[in-house]
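## retry 2 of 3
previous attempt timed out at serialization; input unchanged, resubmitting
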Amino acid sequence: MTRPFTDKILTANHLQTGDAIYWAADGWSRDVAAATVLRDANSAEQALTRATNQPQTAVGPYLAEAALTADGSPYPTHFREVFRTKGPSNYHHGKQEQAHV
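## retry succeeded, writing output
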């Protein structure tokens, strides 16, 4: 028996910076809230195929389980993905450095 499809977001790492990036309506974004929510298997597979064909930008694209906040913004539901939204795990790089400046 197959599991029913649940909402997903498409994520990868940016080739040059290593940052987590998310498939959005206008291309890749570092902001998970801008991610396009993929609501069916067909659209998810199409997005994954397009992302896989962008090796000059995205490394290791994959689908991640997602849900929506009260205002309709997507967010990942798995702790690993939540952790990735916060950037590197030290204060000398990326999003965490910007948050403490």
